[in-house]
């Protein structure tokens, strides 16, 4: 099927501006988005829970009341990841056993987006337990990549990325603990932001086993937006942040970056390396200082091992995997100590460098498979690699709680390739601004 370029459809801010200027009403914007979903989603299967009747009712009410200046997303239609609670809609995290689990209240992020004037059209597909780089489950089936129906859009926010990339909606909100915002953005050729840990509230984003009970946000995991441009990412972060943020305003030409393309835990496929190297060369021609090695980089193999250990405990809430033993409280505090040392090491690096540039994943969009990507082999440069090792680039920012913005930088064989722009904790707006400047240099 055809795939619309990012510029072929207006973003969230552009839609809100058109509504404010009277070029369309909220009802017309929502009606058009529903029509796009009904036309395109038969081939993609991204928006797996629809709420069209209530969306049209809300859009009609917004149309009748008129534009509200204090609502930056006034009348903007969007979708949200299935794992967020939306009052009156099911939240099952891909499990048949929880298919009838109807949320009694909106997640905090959903409330903030609605308060900003957004109209939620429905929820987008995920893998079971949000634990795969595919978005396929027994309840809603498989989501396809808009660029190639035989490939994954990524996961676990894969339905979100596919909905945005295909032009159904301007934006979505996902979560990320193992690249679940960044990898779908990379696989689908859109923009995504992994926020600093703790920046965006995760209340109302809990496993359905805990439905109706408040739960700790947990380690490592974050909520972050997916969109078709940097300005929309910035607005969505500003609308949902729980602490104040400030941008440095430092021009990209005055910034110093470190490019990392090699990781000791997993090779980087040539299809990923080539577009990022070409992008880096273009940035250097534009005057950006880019180093390719630094003694300040922590031991990445050790960091990856500790990240995977912490990730497995966080995802399972301390329960053992096959052949494993339950993590004790002492084990967990030891992990937190190691994570704090990692945070300090990266803080020392960012005292010298403004940004780290890196792949979001060592591969482009993977072909569909029946098992999880992490449980089987992944082909990289013609050889098989352990699926779990591919999480190395996701952990680069996740383990030390850093922000990372992914932007599309090129393609190989018709499949898009993204790049991470990582910086110090709470420098979310700087990451987005740098990615925006990089995108302007690369794409005009």
Your description of this structure?
The protein has 444 residues and is of the alpha+beta class. It folds into 2 domains: 12-239, Amidase signature (AS) enzymes (Alpha-Beta Complex); 252-443, Amidase signature (AS) domain (Amidase signature (AS) enzymes, Alpha-Beta Complex). Helix content is 34%, strand content 16%. It is built from 12 helices and 15 strands. An 8-stranded mixed sheet has the order 6-8-7-14-15-11-9-10, sandwiched between helices. Strands 1-3-2 form a 3-stranded mixed sheet. A two-stranded antiparallel ribbon has the order 4-5. The longest helix has 21 residues, at 329-349. It is globular. This is Putative amidase. Residues 28-294, 339-430 form the Amidase domain. It holds the Pfam family Amidase.
Features:
FAAH2, 12 helices, AS_sf, 3-stranded mixed β-sheet, Amidase signature (AS) enzymes, Amidase_dom, 2 domains, 34% helix, 16% strand, Putative amidase, alpha+beta, 444 residues, 8-stranded mixed β-sheet, globular
